[in-house]
Design a protein that fits this description.
The chain is mostly helical. The chain folds into three domains: 331 residues, no CATH class; 42 residues, no CATH class; 35 residues, no CATH class. 70% of the residues lie in helices and 3% in strands. The chain contains 20 helices and four strands. Strand 1 and strand 2 form a beta hairpin. The longest helix has 29 residues. The N terminus and C terminus are likely disordered.
Length: 467
């Protein structure tokens, strides 16, 4: 009778959780069952419809602007964390409920979001709050002490966790503490780098993110129609034909998609504030302006970085070509925007390295005997199933942009951020000096400077130009 009660309790627990978990992970994994063509076609239709709907939604959010796109990323991070927290709960489930488990998980998640997002949009936020004295009074202190506030919030959660420890549950509670921090570190932290890319110009988020989608589509189509050779055991459905087809297709899409996106200022101009639906206007960066390149110049620059042995082999191969072809290649020129060449680098990463994020997720699912992380997206599984490769791409796109694209410049947000680090005396002095400069240029009347001097008294000595 007791055995039947235990079985019934286990059955009810399994029905209550959407993730299937097998306690004995040492059991041999079942071989994947062959799928008939009718089932494959049905799956193809469902996947295609949901993919079109996802892309249409994504385009709509891009059109709405930088801030809605930032909240879209936050929503994706929330859904990914929810799916993984659910797996952690199943994996480390104890016979008794753990005190404040879900509260602690989401508390640490939103503390991490607060710290990360404000680090990336602090300058934009300063531009907004300083436009009104009431907003400045409310938010200036919080922005100035953002790091300290973030650390204090984390320590409050840490102390709360320690106080919630219960005898007999220590192992499960510390396991969940580790799960929570690893989930945030592996998923939430990397994808937050996309927020920085968004405000540097939508193209620096949209292009890398869409290349992941393009590679997934191209690899799926190539594998569906031509796939024969298995690629990796972690993902039995992945084939070499799909992997290579995805790589080639992504390169082509990246080259032309970058040229298309670079035509629109909405995609290329950086957003220096947090306004929504406000148009953007800027001088196009040189990376978006087409240039004429000579193939000989590019090859010489590339060859100069290779080892001497490889250079000699390449020289022999070039000399072996027909004379007419050698002359044609030496005189060949082409005109492209530099962003198109950078897009090929992004596409290469999206096709060769980023899929390993998917393989990692596949291995994780196999470890817990799961097919998908969830069922949020028909034909695709959970949000994590579609977001796994984006995690790697987010950090690479950020590093690539600041290594090869970004140029040192001073923005209004940068100046305001630096000004907040001055003491009270120097901040007021900065206002006076700046007012003198503006009055000297005729941008503001000298009476404004007189008013500042009269209001502040004799604490500061300013030379006020004639009005």
């Amino acid at each position: 009778m007791a055995t039947l009660q235990k079985v019934g309790a286990a059955s009810r627990a399994a029905r209550a959780t959407p993730v299937e978990y097998v306690e004995d992970a040492s059991e041999p994994e079942p071989e994947p069952k062959p799928v008939d063509r009718k089932t494959k076609l049905r799956s193809f239709r469902v996947r295609t419809v949901s993919t079109v709907a996802l892309i249409a939604t994504f385009i709509g959010i891009i059109w709405s602007g930088h801030v809605p796109l930032m909240f879209f990323i936050l929503m994706m991070q929330f859904l990914v964390a929810r799916e993984l927290f659910r797996i952690a709960y199943v994996a480390e489930r104890s016979k008794r409920s753990l005190p404040l488990l879900r509260t602690q998980q989401w508390y640490f998640f939103f503390t991490a979001v607060f710290w990360l997002y404000l680090r990336f949009i602090k300058n934009n936020l300063l531009v907004e709050v300083t436009s009104d004295k009431t907003l400045a009074r409310l938010f200036y202190w919080a922005l100035k002490h953002h790091s300290l506030i973030s650390y204090s919030l984390y320590m409050a959660g840490f102390v709360g966790f320690v106080l919630s420890l219960k005898k007999g549950l220590y192992l499960h509670q510390f396991a969940h503490y580790a799960w929570t921090h690893m989930i945030i570190l592996i998923t939430t932290v990397p994808t937050s780098f996309f927020v920085s890319n968004i405000f540097s110009g939508l193209i620096w988020y949209v292009l890398p993110a869409f290349l992941i989608v393009a590679n997934d589509i191209c690899a799926y189509l190539a594998g569906f129609f031509f796939g024969r050779t298995p690629l990796i055991k972690l993902s039995p459905k992945k084939t070499w034909e799909g992997f290579i087809g995805g790589f080639l297709g992504t390169l082509v899409i990246a080259f032309f998609l970058a040229a298309l996106m670079s035509r629109f200022k909405w995609m290329t101009c950086p957003r220096k504030d947090l306004t929504v639906f406000k148009g953007l206007d800027c001088d196009p960066d040189e990376v978006f302006v087409p240039e004429t390149y000579a193939l000989s110049d590019l090859t010489q620059d590339l060859v100069s970085r290779l080892p001497d042995t490889m250079i000699s082999y390449l020289s022999l191969m070039f000399e072996a070509l027909p004379a007419g072809l050698r002359h044609w290649l030496a005189d060949l020129t082409f005109t492209v925007a530099p962003i198109q060449l950078h897009a090929l680098s992004l596409a290469s990463f999206a096709s060769i390295i980023a899929p390993f994020g998917g393989f990692f997720a596949s291995g994780f699912k196999r470890a817990f005997h799961m097919k998908d992380f969830g069922d949020t997206i028909p034909g695709h599984g959970g949000v994590t199933d579609r977001f796994d490769c984006q995690i790697l791409m987010a950090v690479f796109a950020y590093c690539y942009y600041y290594s090869y694209i970004s140029k040192p410049e001073v923005t209004l947000g940068d100046v305001l951020s630096m000004a907040t680090k001055l003491n009270d005396h120097d901040q007021i002095l900065l206002v006076g000096k700046l007012a003198n400069l503006l009055a000297g240029e005729g941008l503001i009347p000298g009476s404004i400077v007189d008013g500042l001097r009269n209001h502040l008294g004799e604490r500061f000595t300013w030379e006020v130009p004639d009005s």
